[in-house]
């Protein structure tokens, strides 16, 4: 077998080749792109037996995505994506000086896949469709997070010079709010808005109770408030107008990307099983599928899937002291989606609600109870995927009902 450590950067890769005894066979710095991959294949070919299979080449690298990784997988190599923290801890096992270099990291990665690959997880063989879902679902979620940041900036600006706008508009990303703030981004112009203009914006946004809301908005905008000097107010108004334009653009792109997420997710083979789970709609299911992937052999047991999700607790024990804690290191996107699923499942699944209520009755806090419910739902999802069957309420919670009885 041949072991390759690949320390990647934006424009180059430092690689080291080792044999099974740990002897260094070659070391090189390769450019990113086709030329670099070709040189890596040639370097491997120089030291690999003619009758050896491609999967006898084991590669350690600190990422699981990108065209370089895809090229390694396509070549048939066994690729391990290793967390940089693991590499740092492994490096500290062999020296205490704190020295670090790209070539040294390549050596460490080669050593890791040679001696500890049984403790590592190979890059999953997800389908192209599942990878596409992951890309668009992440892009959609990132747009939502970025919009929220801009909304908070807008709220901060309004709070400092136009606080009555916050009383008039309860949703700063709503189309009617953005339309009216674009027309009147300061207190003076907002007070001049007619009821007809306000009502027209509400109708275009398809709001209910237009007359009542028009009255409430008009009253709030015309209320007295402390004011900023004219020059300062004009500067704030320009800021508000700019933020409104950005948020409006975000709304349009989020809506377009949402359709893309639904389209990609609908073509995956496990879409029906994911949509059958309590608390999962198309967008949330796409996020969960994208982060879990669809490689049937990636998670050997439900525990492996829960550990990857970050919903299962960790135990720290030393002597007589023993504590059980939530996982600090986790996939933020996946855990966020699973937390939302658990919260939504409280309204759609009697079994999930009963499980949550039982936890709360034991004086477990809300967030901890939701996290434990999410952990339980991950196990149910794993069972459904392994057996290829949609979610069934009675089957999923039969164990809990039996325990209660």
Q: Please, could you describe this protein's structure?
A:
- With 405 residues, this protein is of the alpha/beta class.
- The chain has 3 domains: 2-123, Nucleotidyltransferase, domain 5; 132-263; 273-404, no CATH class.
- It is built from 19 helices and 7 strands.
- It has helices at residues 34-47, 67-74, 84-93, 102-115, 128-161, 164-168, 175-183, 187-191, 195-204, 210-221, 230-266, 271-276, 282-292, 302-309, 332-348, 350-361, 366-387, 393-396, 398-404, and strands spanning 2-8, 12-18, 24-31, 57-61, 78-81, 314-318, 321-325.
- The strands form 2 sheets. A 5-stranded mixed β-sheet has the order 3-2-1-4-5. Strands 6-7 form a two-stranded antiparallel ribbon.
How is the biggest beta sheet arranged?
A: 5 strands, mixed
Question: Residue share in helices?
Answer: 55-70%
Beta-strand percent range: 5-15%
Number of strands: 7
Derived from helix and strand composition plus strand pairing, the structural class reads alpha/beta
Work out the helix count.
19
Overall radius of gyration: 27 Å
Mean pLDDT across residues: 92
Going across the major beta sheet, what is the strand order?
Answer: 3-2-1-4-5
Unreliable runs: none
**CA distance, first residue to last residue:** 56 Å
Number of domains: 3
Coarse morphology: globular
Instruction: Tell me the series of helices and strands, N- to C-terminal.
Output: EEEHEHEHHHHHHHHHHHHEEHHHHH
Domain Transposase IS116/IS110/IS902 C-terminal: 275-356
Pfam family, one: Transposase_20
Domain Transposase IS110-like N-terminal: 4-163
Organism: Georgenia deserti
